[in-house]
Amino acid sequence: MELFTPEFGLVFWMFVAFAVLFLVLAKWGWPAIMKSVESRADLIDKGVEYAQNAKEQLDHAREEAEKYIDEARKQQAEMLRDADRMKTQIIEEARAEAQKEAKKQMDAAKVAIEQSRKEAELRFRDEVSSFALEIASKVVRKQMSDEKAQSQLVNSLLDEIENKN
Amino acid sequence: MIMCAVLVSPQCMSASGHDGGQEEKKINPKEIIFEHLGDGYGWEVPFSHDLRIPLPVIVRSYDGEWHCFSSSRIQHGKEYDGFKLGGKDSKWHNKIVGERPVTVGGKTVMEEYRPLDLSITKNVLALFISVIIVMWMILQVASWYRKQGYKAPRKFTGAIEALIEFVYRGVIKPTLGAKSPKFAPYLLTVFFFILVMNLLGLIVIFPGGANLTGNIAVTLVLSLITFLIVNIFGTKHYWKDIFWPDVPLWLKFPIPIMPIIEIFGVFTKPAALTVRLFANMMGGHIIVIVLTLLIFILAVLGPAVAGGATVVSVLFSIFMLLIDVLVSFIQAYVFTMLSTLFISLAQEEGHKEKEHDKELKTEK
């Protein structure tokens, strides 16, 4: 049967054709494809890994940012509270200081007034007594009788004046 | 490819129909089948029984002289340069034969002989076309990678790449493991070559139609190369397993039963490869041709039967061609898979290394 007997010509050409095909593809075809497919697979793996990492980092970063914002908010509130407290404290202190100062001034003024009043009283008394003495001496010059009784009378008069004041 | 096969299958039928109608005589199914299955000097053209695309004939005559001429010169029984096609009663029917003088009992008579024939026949041309198609297919994928780098290919390039990946990751890598880069070029080349030859064979008009993988010479060469690779790259362990396998001594000592079986197995493997591909593809071609011829065989029974037979035959032919598309792929796959398997069996190192290999595989 001719179907089952290989023809030499075809066998020969088949060898040649296959050898050419194989050599060409083994040189320029397969190695390049294998290498590229392999490295592309690696690249994709790496890309996926990178993306996963990035996502993780992003999530992490978001959390971190939220944490920071929270902290900042807390700090802000605290600072505001502190400022408020400080303000009231300062006002309070200032008020106290002012009161104290005012009181001191007032006291000083009182003391000064008292003193000057006392001085004035004393001077007035001296003047009054000297006026009285002058008057008395004028009286006495007229009536040189009972000097002692006269001065006693004058003193009691003065005492009366003082009590009236 | 499926589309092509379906589109041209009616053409095949009309071509055959033309044959039958023109000759106005009883058709000879056997001759038609064999003509379609076999090789030829010249390529049939649809709708014409006589017209052939002429192809170069290259022969070396008995005196060592090379002759090269167009196949159209020896068509229809013409003789050229002392060569002609063998007749029906010749030993070499439809092959180029010459005549040479031989002396038989003192008398010199002219005897028909078969010259060394390296003609570019229909099958050889189809072979070249397949080689060019495969080369273009694979090199364009390679050039895509060279130009586009890591971009994923689309359309045809992507489809070819998917096929490469399918064979490389599905068959070669799991079987050969770390050794796959060494043998992958051969196995992938074989896969695509067989696939393209199979599919081209299903197209009925010019670039296709040659029953290439259904020709034993083609499958023989392919399995011979696999055979050579298996045995040239075979490890010591492989040869030890053949000549001194791990079986009870009486099986191999005075009479080497097991070694004989093993040696037998070395040669049956490529034989099985040869016959499997050849028979499968030839079977597909025969079924389609027979289904088509059925119309003309049944035509003598009257127009009603012929009409019914035509419808049924065409439907069945289309169905068979579709199945053949599947078979084309499966046979290419099976040939590659078995080649991979045979190579990997010859790559076995002792048991320790085998386990190590397995570890490597699982790691991957």
Describe the 3D structure.
- The complex is a heterodimer of chains A (165) and B (364).
- Chain A is mostly helical.
- Chain A contains two helices and no strands.
- In chain A, 93% of the residues lie in helices and 0% in strands.
- In chain A, helix 1 packs antiparallel against helix 2 (147-164).
- The mean pLDDT of chain A is 86.
- Chain B has 364 residues and is mainly alpha-helical.
- Chain B has ten helices and eight strands.
- In chain B, the strands form three sheets. Chain B has a three-stranded antiparallel sheet with strand order 4-3-8, with no helix packed on it.
- Classes of the chains: A mainly alpha (165), B mainly alpha (364).
- Chain A binds chain B through residues 2-15, 17-18, 20-22, 24-26, 28-34, 36-37, 39-40, 43, and chain B through 34, 37-39, 93, 95, 116-121, 123-124, 127-128, 130-131, 134-135, 138-139, 141-142, 145-146, 149-150, 152, 161, 164-165, 168, 181, 184-186, 188-189, 193, 215-218, 220-222, 225, 282.
Considering DSSP H and I runs of 4 or more, what fraction of the residues of chain B is helical? 55-70%
Please trace the helix and strand order of chain B, writing H or E for each element.
HHEEEEEEEEHHHHHHHH
Please tell me what the overall shape of chain A is: rod-shaped
Label the structural class of chain A. mainly alpha
Global structural class of chain B: mainly alpha
Q: How would you describe the oligomerization state of the chains in this entry?
A: heterodimer
Number of helices of chain B: 10
Task: Give the largest interface.
Answer: A-B, 34 and 49 residues
Number of domains of chain A: 1
Counted beta strands of chain A: 0
The backbone outline of chain B, from C-alpha atoms, is: globular
Query: How many structural domains are formed by the residues of chain B?
Result: 2
Low-confidence stretches of chain B: 1-24
Mean pLDDT of chain B: 79
Kindly report how far apart the N and C termini of chain B lie: 36 Å
Q: Could you tell me the radius of gyration of chain A in angstroms?
A: 62 Å
Element-level helix/strand string of chain A: HH
- The count of DSSP E runs of length 2 or more, i.e. the number of strands of chain B, is 8
Rg from Cα of chain B: 25 Å
Give the fraction of residues assigned to helices of chain A: over 70%
